[in-house]
Write a structure and sequence with these properties.
- By secondary structure, the chain is mainly alpha-helical.
- It is built from twelve helices and two strands; from the N terminus they run ααααααββαααααα.
- Strand 1 and strand 2 form a beta hairpin.
- Helix 3 packs antiparallel against helix 4 and helix 9 packs antiparallel against helix 11.
Length: 376
């Protein structure tokens, strides 16, 4: 069976003779051609799965010329990144082996008349190994360059697609709600399975998660009980500064969330829902501590704005809500590419999220503006 590969090299810049540069797609295909030539020789010798990597890169390269959504592009990016990592490891391995082979040949030295036959056989074996390693190293470099080039193309296509989505006049929120109601029951079953199942078992019935929750609750209660004696022992006084009181106020929440997240990860119960909950709350506790520190009576805001205590407290509550809601959205976006719901299916939730967030920001601006916080 004969397979024909069609290769097209990109145009040379400025119409000048070959200056060693070609278009990205031509560079990629040239690398793939060289890789195809060397795959039969290196299939058993390299830790990089050349035939599989070559097929994957070729399939992704063909897919980029067709329509692809952000989820598909992200999956391609993960595959290309993994191949690039394997190619880098392959280069490191082959460089090390080639260096050892070169040293061995240097020790043997050139062939001389009358040398023992076993030395001649060993030298020939090392020379053959040197040629093989050089070929393997070149192939690993080709795959590293090809994966880097393809990764750049994926990023460009994803950026262009996201820009197009941002500039597109979408359906109104009522139409988005109607589209949400028309989603098939199978998709909702997959959605429920995605959030409430982990390792093919309900997440809240898993002993690992129950143990993690117990550890987190225990640590939260312990820190809540000990924070005053702990502060007294560390600072040798109960007359703490505002910044110190703020830290000890949020320390139990930070410690409890960190303990649950770490133990869930160790026990392999860190499901998407657990990541969403504790990723949001853990970061929220840290940001709330910084906001409380900035909006205290002697904080940085008080030094620049003539806000009253009531305005500071109101702004702090609103800012904490904005921080919690924003963090929830960011963590959800980070998890959502694996979500069974497509981007179109989630349009209603995204619109509602933006409306609530915008309303909170406008409320903050109105509240602070009514109090005229800026000094004359």
């Amino acid at each position: 069976m004969r397979v024909i590969y069609r290769i097209s090299i990109g145009p040379i810049d400025n119409g000048t003779p070959d200056n060693g540069r070609c278009s990205c797609s031509g560079y990629f295909l040239l690398g793939m051609l060289l890789a195809i030539w060397t795959v039969p020789l290196l299939a058993q010798a390299s830790s990089l799965q050349l035939s599989t990597a070559n097929a994957t890169l070729q399939a992704i390269h063909r897919g980029l010329s067709q329509h692809a959504d952000t989820r598909q592009l992200q999956n391609w990016q993960k595959s290309v990144t993994a191949i690039g990592h394997d190619a880098d490891a392959c280069m490191t391995e082959k460089n090390s082996n080639l260096s050892q082979t070169d040293k061995a040949l240097g020790i043997l030295g050139p062939a001389v008349a009358g040398e023992p036959e076993n030395l001649t056989v060993l030298r020939q074996k090392l020379q053959n190994e040197q040629k093989t390693l050089s070929g393997e190293l070149a192939t690993c470099k080709i795959f590293a360059i090809a994966s880097a080039d393809l990764s750049q193309q994926i990023r460009k296509k994803r950026d262009a697609l996201l820009a197009q989505m941002l500039l597109r006049h979408d359906h109104n929120i009522w139409q988005q709600a109607m589209a949400l109601l028309s989603i098939s029951a199978t998709t909702w079953v997959d959605e429920q399975h995605f959030w409430l199942t982990w390792n093919e078992h309900p997440i809240f019935a898993q002993k690992g998660l129950q143990l993690s929750a117990g550890i987190g609750i225990f640590l939260f209660a312990l820190l809540s009980f000990l924070r005053v004696p702990l502060a007294k022992a560390i600072h040798r006084t109960l007359d703490l500064s505002d910044a110190q009181r703020i830290f000890y106020h949020y320390a139990p929440l930070l410690g409890g969330v960190a303990a649950v997240a770490a133990s869930s990860y160790i026990t392999d119960t860190f499901s998407p829902l657990i990541a969403l909950i504790f990723g949001t709350w853990g970061t929220y506790a840290a940001i709330s501590m910084l906001l409380a520190w900035a909006l205290r009576s002697s904080g940085i805001v008080g030094r620049h704005f003539s806000w009253e205590q009531q305005t500071l407290r109101s702004a702090l509550r609103t800012l904490r809500f904005i921080a919690l809601f924003s963090l929830f959205g960011l963590v959800w976006i980070g998890i959502s590419p694996q979500d069974p719901l497509s981007a179109a299916d989630r349009a209603f939730f995204v619109s509602a999220y933006h409306l609530v967030l915008l309303g909170a920001v406008l409320w903050l601006v109105w509240r602070t503006g009514v109090q005229k916080p800026f000094r004359a």
